[in-house]
Amino acid sequence: MILPVILAGGKGTRLWPMSRELMPKQFLPLVGTTTMLQETINRLKPITTELPLVICNVEHRFLAAENLRAVGKLNKNLLLEPIGKNTAPAIAIAALTALKSGSDPLLLVLAADHVITKLEEFVDAVSNAQILATQGKLVTFGIVPDAPETGYGYIRRGEVINSLDGKQLGFNVKEFAEKPELSIAESYLTSGEYVWNSGMFMFKASIFLAELKKFNPTILQYCEQAVMGSTIDLDFIRVDPVPFEKCPSDSIDYTVMEKTDCAVVVPLDAGWNDVGTWSSLWQVLPKNELSNAVKGDVIAVDSKNSLLISEHGLLTCVGVNNLVVVQTKDAVLVADKNNAQNVKKIIQQLNDSGRTEQTNHREVYRPWGKYDSIDAGSRYQVKRITVNPNDKLSIQMHHHRAEHWIVVSGTAKVTLDGEIRLLTENQSIYIPLGSVHSLENPGKIALELIEVQSGPYLGEDDIVRFSDIYGRTN
Q1: What is the pTM of this model?
Q2: Same domain membership, residue 391 and residue 305
Q3: Tens digits of residue pLDDT in 367-423
Q4: Is residue 354, in this structure, part of any structural domain at all?
Q5: DSSP 329-390
Q6: Which of 30, 338, 341, 463 is deepest in the core (most CB within 10 A)?
Q7: 361 occurs within a structural domain
Q8: Are residues 17 and 143 in the same domain?
Q9: Which residue, 243, 449, 370, 343, is CA-closest to 19?
Q10: Domain for residue 353, yes or no?
C-alpha cells in the first residue's frame, strides 16, 4: 500500500506579501480555488493510497488541520515538527511513525506546494516508481527540463531500467549535480542526460531507514527517540521535542540519496513547477492576450507581460511591462519580474526593523476562525472576528485591556464572570478589564462581530487562558 507523506513545513517567503511565516504558500489558493496543500491531496485521487500523513510546523497545525478537514482527509494524521530540521529528519519520523502501525508501506513523499498540470503523466510516473520501490529501490522523480534552469539541482541518468515486459520504468542514478551556472545548465540541457531534482520520492519505509542508518545513524537515533515518545493530541501526532531538537538538520539528498547504491530516477514530464518565485507563478497562471496573469479586482491599461494580483481593493496599472504587482490588505509589492526573487531582501529589512508584516497578515487565522485587524491607535484596536459554527474561543482574561463586542451576524454565546448570555445581530456586550470571559458560536452559520479593544497595552500576548478545547492553556 502507498502512504503519501506530504511535506508542508516551508515558509514560502519569496512569495511575500501573500505568503508569510504564519500563512505560507502551501495554505494559499495561489493557482486554483483550493490551497496548494489541498491540490496536492486531490492529485492522489486516481491512485490507491492510505490516508496521507502530513508533516508541518507546530505553528501551522490548525491551518493544516482545517485544510485536511475541508477535503475529508483529517483523522489523526498531522505529524508535527517541534522545529524545522530539513527533509531527512522529517521523512525519518514519518517512516518511523508508519512502521508503528505494523506495516511497511511505500512512502510517496511529496511537497505540499508544487504545481502539476498533467495528472495522467503524474499517475503513470507514480505507477513506474511503485514497481521500482517494491524492489527495494529509493526512487526520486526527475523533472524533464525544458530550459537551462540555474535554480534547481540536477540528476544525471545512468542505465535504463525496464520492466519484465520491456516497459521503461526509469534509470539508475549516475550522479547528483548542484545548482549550476548558466553555461553548465545549457550543456546539461543539450546532453539530454540530466533531469531536474524535484524533491519527490518513493521508497519502502524500512529501506529508507536502513540506508539512513548506514549513512547517518545520529539522525536515525534522535528520530527514533522522538517517535518513541510521541503522543496523540486531537488530530495531531506530537513527537518528543527534546531528542528531535538535538537531531542534525540535513536534506534527504545529501544524507542518503547522493550516497546510496539504491537510488533510481523516474522521469516526470507533467507540467511541474515548484512555484518558488513570483515569476514562476506567472508562468503557471492563465494569461490574457497581453500575457498578463491577473487575479482579483484589477484594471490594466496598455500593460503586458505582468503578474497583477489584488487581494483587497481595486488595483490599477497603466503602461507597465514585465512587472509583479501584488496588493494585500496591509502591503504592496512592486518588482521587476526578472528580479522578483530578491523579495528576500525586503524580508530581511522587515526583520531588522522589528516589523511584523513578514510574519502575519492583517487577517490572522485561528483554530476557531479568524480575525481582521481593521484599525488601531495608541490606546485602541478594532477587529472583525469570525467564529466558525460550533467553535469556541478559550476561557480567558486580560490584564491591560477592556473589550466591547458588537454582533454583526449570527449568534454569540458569551460567558462573562460565570454568567451566560446569548447575543444576536446588532446586540453588544462590554467585557471589563480583568473579567473572565469566553465566546462561542452555538449556531449553524458563521458568527461575525466587531471587537473594540481599549487600554494601555493591546498585544496578543496579554491573554491568560484558563481552559481551551485546542490545548492552548497557559
Answers
A1: 0.91
A2: no
A3: 899 999 999 999 999 999 999 999 999 999 999 999 999 999 999 999 999 999 999
A4: no
A5: SS-EEEEEGGGGGGHHHHHHHHHHTT-STTT--SEEEETTEEEEEEEE-SSEEEEEEEE-TT
A6: 30
A7: no
A8: yes
A9: 343
A10: no
